[in-house]
């Protein structure tokens, strides 16, 4: 991997609009992993996606594609960002990033956010992409657990990394520090 694109999650609107709280791309472990990868020579993009509290796939796609993901790119998606990565890869069958790492992958089963999660998961992703990893915390919510196992069943080549005590991988939601060494270890396997 020579570059990485990190796709943040979907905050609640009240949290996003609170000037005392960091924006989604500035929160939790995202700046930490950006810094760690940057120190290893990886060009890391961590874009602030438009209107993250009500994600629009086409708006996110336009911003994401401006970073030109290619065969030497690691894609890292967190929560709704992981769902975005899966949809983008499923709809762009020509895309062959070096890896895709999904952290606490969320999916809008109820359709509260329009068509954001309306896509058919490409079950051939594991054959097309060099490395797929799914990070799951055993104490995350039941909808996340269900989605993790749905993805793993559809893409058996994906590596499932089960942790405990990380909640939804957010500070204040069981995660005690911004440091996420397990993610850095996984991503380090493809740094050249």
Low-confidence stretches: none
CATH architect. name: 3-Layer(aba) Sandwich
Question: What's the domain count?
Answer: 1
- Helices and strands, in N-to-C order? EHHEHEHEHEHEEEH
Gross morphology: globular
Textual characterization of the structure:
The chain is α/β, with parallel strands linked by helices and 192 residues long. 32% of the residues lie in helices and 18% in strands. It has one domain (3-188): 3-Layer(aba) Sandwich (Rossmann fold), CATH 3.40.50. The strands form 2 sheets. It has a 6-stranded parallel sheet, with helices on both faces. The mean pLDDT is 96.
Please outline the helices and strands.
Elements: E1 3-7, H1 13-17, H2 30-39, E2 43-45, H3 57-65, E3 73-78, H4 80-91, E4 99-103, H5 125-128, E5 131-137, H6 142-154, E6 159-163, E7 170-171, E8 174-175, H7 181-188
Parallel strand pairs: 1-2, 1-3, 3-4, 4-5, 5-6, 7-8
Question: Which key features would you list for this structure?
Answer:
alpha/beta; Rossmann fold; two-stranded parallel ribbon; 32% helix
Can you give me a brief rundown of this structure?
By secondary structure, the chain is of the alpha/beta class. 32% of the residues lie in helices and 18% in strands. The protein has one domain (3-188): Rossmann fold (3-Layer(aba) Sandwich).
């Amino acid at each position: 991997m020579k570059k990485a694109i990190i796709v943040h999650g979907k905050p609640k609107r009240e949290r996003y609009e609170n000037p005392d709280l960091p924006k989604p791309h500035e929160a939790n472990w995202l700046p930490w992993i950006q810094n760690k990868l940057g120190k290893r020579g990886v060009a890391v993009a961590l874009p602030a996606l438009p209107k993250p509290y009500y994600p629009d796939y086409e708006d996110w796609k336009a911003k994401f594609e401006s970073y030109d993901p290619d065969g030497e790119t690691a894609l890292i998606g967190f929560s709704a960002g992981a769902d975005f990565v899966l949809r983008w890869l499923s709809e762009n069958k020509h895309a062959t990033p070096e890896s895709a790492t999904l952290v606490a992958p969320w999916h809008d089963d109820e359709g509260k956010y329009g068509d954001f999660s309306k896509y058919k998961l490409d079950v051939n992703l594991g054959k097309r992409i060099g490395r797929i990893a799914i990070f799951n915390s055993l104490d995350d919510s039941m909808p996340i657990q269900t989605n993790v196992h749905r993805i793993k069943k559809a893409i058996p080549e994906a590596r499932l990394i089960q942790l405990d005590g990380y909640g939804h991988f957010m500070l204040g939601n069981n995660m005690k520090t911004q440091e996420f060494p397990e993610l850095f270890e996984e991503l380090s396997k493809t740094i050249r």
